[in-house]
Design goal:
By secondary structure, this protein is an alpha/beta fold. It has two domains: 151 residues, Alpha-Beta Complex (Quinone Oxidoreductase, Chain A, domain 1), CATH 3.90.180; 144 residues, NAD(P)-binding Rossmann-like Domain (Rossmann fold, 3-Layer(aba) Sandwich), CATH 3.40.50.720. The chain has twelve helices and 15 strands. The strands form three sheets. Strands 3, 4, 5, 6, 7, 14 and 15 form a seven-stranded mixed beta sheet that branches. It has a six-stranded parallel beta sheet with strand order 10-9-8-11-12-13, sandwiched between helices. α9 links the parallel β12 and β13. The protein is globular, with a radius of gyration of 19 Å. The mean pLDDT is 95. It comes from Janibacter melonis.
Length: 327
């Protein structure tokens, strides 16, 4: 089968090589899927450079998130079954930038019937993160003001739609007028262009001086700093990533004076330590999606030959939505 392999660490163009490899056999507790679509995640660029939290032995196939059809099951697996359409995280080193990939059966979730293959491929990281952050960590309530940074990105756009589904008033932060138009289409009630506006001042104006009750921050750096200046009393700032490259640095004296909380979310720990919580999260998301409240924002659909270019684009911050690769 065809597969893109990381043969050495570096940029996607330096690290990746396309070749023919053996079809992997699922081990105990695993399933093999024929990949229908693979999402392109920022974390895949970190896998290429060797900076991800997991460093598989070279060579390996990246591609952390897929939608596919089960073609084989390993020992001890009864669900899912051959022929089932599933989505979820791959089991490295047999990732999703290949014709077939491996997944752990316990985290191969049913794909909502309402979603296309491309939408389903880009669903689990963005939407599990969004639901667990907004509902389990921040306990968002109807009528609250939700501030979402990078509102047209894959993770941000999911948070926008989940916030709307929860009855929140959603303020999205974007970079540039084209992304501002897209943010309105995704579902933002108010859009702030960070390139031409003071984010904190705009949020305070949009909320009548109240501030954001919940902040969803996958960016870090200036986004986090701005958030601390417009978060409401008893507000909750959710730290879900640092795509800017600058990690959030909380000033606890400032949090004390202003009376806000900073909440971190590592979805991987939930999968490892609280799998029942993640299954309940996914079931809730399927209901929301099939009720018509979610329309995952898919970016460019790249052909299989363009995996390095797709990863370079997401690393450069030039994408909207979640790009996908279609084998």
């Amino acid at each position: 089968m065809r597969a893109w392999q990381v043969v050495r660490h570096g940029s996607p163009a330096e690290a990746l090589r396309l070749g023919e490899v053996a079809v992997p056999d699922p081990g105990p507790g695993q399933v093999r899927v024929a990949v229908r679509a693979a999402a392109v995640n920022f974390a895949d660029t970190l896998l290429c450079s060797g900076e991800y939290q997991v460093r598989p032995e070279l060579p390996f196939v990246p591609g952390l998130e897929v939608c596919g059809v089960v073609t084989a099951v390993g020992e001890g697996v009864s669900v899912p079954a051959v022929g089932d359409r599933v989505l979820g995280m791959t089991a490295l080193p047999q990732g999703g930038f290949a014709d077939e990939a491996l997944m752990d059966a316990s985290t191969a979730y049913p794909a909502p019937a309402s979603l296309t293959d491309a939408q389903a491929a880009a669903f689990v990281i963005s939407h599990h993160t969004g639901w667990l952050a907004l509902h389990r960590r921040a306990a968002i309530r109807p009528g609250e003001h939700l501030l979402v940074h990078a509102a047209t990105g894959g993770v941000g756009s999911a948070a926008v739609q989940l916030g709307r589904a929860a009855g929140a008033h959603v303020i999205g932060v974007v970079g540039g007028p084209q992304k501002a138009d897209l943010a309105r289409q995704v579902g933002c009630d108010v859009v702030v262009d960070r390139r031409s506006e003071d984010v904190a001042a705009a949020v305070l104006e949009a909320t009548g001086g109240h501030g954001a009750d919940v902040v969803y921050d996958p960016v870090g750096g200036p986004a986090f700093e701005a958030s601390t200046h417009c978060v409401a009393l008893e507000g909750r700032i959710l730290v879900v990533g640092f795509a800017s490259g600058t990690r959030q640095r909380a000033r606890l004296d400032h949090a004390l004076v202003k009376g806000y909380s900073v909440l971190g979310l590592n979805v991987g720990r939930y999968r490892d330590e609280l799998p029942d919580v993640v299954r309940a999260c996914h079931a809730a998301l399927v209901e929301i999606a099939d009720a018509g409240h979610l329309d995952p924002l898919v970016g460019t659909a790249h052909p299989f030959a363009e995996v390095p270019q797709a990863l370079a684009a997401i690393a450069g911050g030039t994408t909207s939505g979640r790009p996908v690769v279609v084998p």
